[in-house]
Every structure is written in structure tokens, then in C-alpha cells.
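The pair is quoted verbatim below.
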Amino acid sequence: MRGLYTAGVTDVMMENGVTFDGAAGVSAGAAFGCNYKSRQIGRVIRYNKRFAHEKRFCSLYSLITTGDLYGADFCYRLLPDSLDPFDTRTYEQNPMEFYVVCTDMDTGKAVYHRCDTGNSEDIAWMRASASMPIVSKPVEIDGMKLLDGGISDSIPVRFFESIGYERNVIILTQPLGYRKQKMKILPLLRTLYPHNREMVDDLAVRHEVYNETIDYITALEHKGKAFVIRPSAPLNIGSTSHDITQMERVYQEGRRVGRYHLAAMKRFIEKAEVE
């Protein structure tokens, strides 16, 4: 649900005509970030609030009956196809590249995929990127069993640099100074995924990798190679929430911070275009 903060920031960007050559989303950043390419302002907060109490959307009922906390058929077929249509035509016509990050369960390595059309296959990749361990079934694509991209590469700035994006706007959902701690549920993960040792080993050091990436981003920021947007304080919302008031609060905080950084961000982008 911290992704609603990002949605607030990106809605302000879209409202003010901010465009990019490419973008990458991980986990909620994939499921929500695709709306930047389809240019659907307000869609993320709208459907999350509308279906906050729909048991097929996100609930223990969905987890028990389907194996997915976020119901796959409801969230990734019924919702984008008819309940709050995803604009695949605009998505496909927008030249901005959009990448998602998933984790291969067998190798524990990150898998990066460019979603060009927004069709059902692309949506399956977005679903895979947002499929949290324990509360989601693996998504099988191209012979791989995939889960949440945050396991292997929470903030794929180095990947983006490797494909030519040398200056990036990075939206974080944790405040300055945040340090991730070692997961407390590793024994449970080792029990649940006995045949995916590499993936669980990645989870065991995930906090170290995340913290090192944050340090790397801070260095890029000081060099003028990254423009970082982050909340000024912890967002204090869980991975899931059914509280519409809290959803709106987090979203509006994103909008507030987005407006605050808008002018400086535009200058950063204009400088990149000149260079």
C-alpha cells in the first residue's frame, strides 16, 4: 500500500506533462506504474478504494480459496478488462518503455521484462512482479516460476543504467535514513520453499542488498545523476489495507511531495535532455 504514495507522485507528474523515455516498476510499482504508460490519472487510488472491501480483490477469503491474497482473476482480468478498464491502446501507443522486475524462484535471480502492449501476457508479468511470497502462487511464464521482483532487485537502478538510462528520477516509499532489517520469517520461508534454496538465500541477505542500493542511489543523487523523491516521514501503512481513509492519506502525501518537487524535477529532466 506504500505504492499509493508513488501513485500520488506520478499522478502529479502526468497532470503536469512530465514524460520519460523509460520507466521500471517492481512489485506494486509494476502493478501501479503501468498506469503511467497508459496515462490514466487517478486510476490507482480509484480502484483501490472502490474495491477495498471486495473479498475477491484482497482478503483472507481470496487467499484460502485461490491461493492468492490479491485474487488473480479479479485483479488481473476482471478489473482491467471491465470494472475499471486498462487503456491498452494508449499504453501501446505511448513510446515510453516500461519494464517490470520479477524473481525466478529456481535461481533466485532477477528477471527483467519489457511490457510493450499491455496485453494479457504483459499483465501476467506485472502480476508476477507483485506476487508476494507466502501469500501468492508463483506465476508461470516462459517455463519460469516467478514471484515478487522485490526479492531480487527492489530498486533496479543499476539495471536501468545498464540499458542506457544514465539519469533517472527515482521514487522511494521510505524516508531518508531508513535501513531495512533482516527478515524475521526466514525459518518459515525455508520450510515453505524447500526446493528454492537460492531464492530464500537471496531473501536472507535482502536487507543488505537493499541498504547498499540506497547508498548507491544517494551517491548518484550527490553526483546529479539521480533525482530522488521520498516521503519525509514513514508512511505508516501496511502491505495491505482496507482503510479507505488511510489509503487516501498516503496517496495525498504523494501528491503533496510530487507538487513540492515538480519544478526541480523538471529542471533535472531538461538538463538531461540537453546533455
